[in-house]
Design brief:
- The protein is α/β, with parallel strands linked by helices.
- Strands 3-2-1-4 form a four-stranded parallel sheet, with helices on both faces. Strands 5-6 form a two-stranded antiparallel sheet.
- The two termini are 13 Å apart.
- It contains five helices and six strands; from the N terminus they run E-H-E-H-E-H-E-E-E-H-H.
Length: 155
Amino acid sequence: NMPVIKLANFKFVIPSYNRVSIIQSHTLALLTKFNIPKNQIYIFTAPEEYEAYKTSLPEYRIIKGELGLAKQRNFITKYFKPGVLLVNLDDDIKKFQMLENGVIKTIENHEERLTAIYKIIDWINNQSIEDLRKFKQNINNNSKDKIDTDANDGC
């Protein structure tokens, strides 16, 4: 049996390169709007960008990663211990959307965000480890950027 998953178990990870002002006005503003605690947000940037991000975003966790999106995503996956649940976000997100009954719906407020997250958590909690591995592999097979599927195989 899988353990019950809670919102506090998630880490929100954002690869970013040379876009400090965009990440501030877009993704971080959105996460703030939806009350995602800053201690659950990890921003990964190339080593040469680290100081600029650290200076502009001192209240966030800034991690020196790799240059290049595919390398950065693999770095992010390996950075965390197996079993840590990661929500990988782009640095220019303006809104969250959810597909419900074939209709794309923009999530407008905290209550809708919680509903969407708990639907995802409920879905995860009702899957077997093997089904989650297959889901992860399917995402990887359909992605432009290949993720190292063995790196964080706690699903």
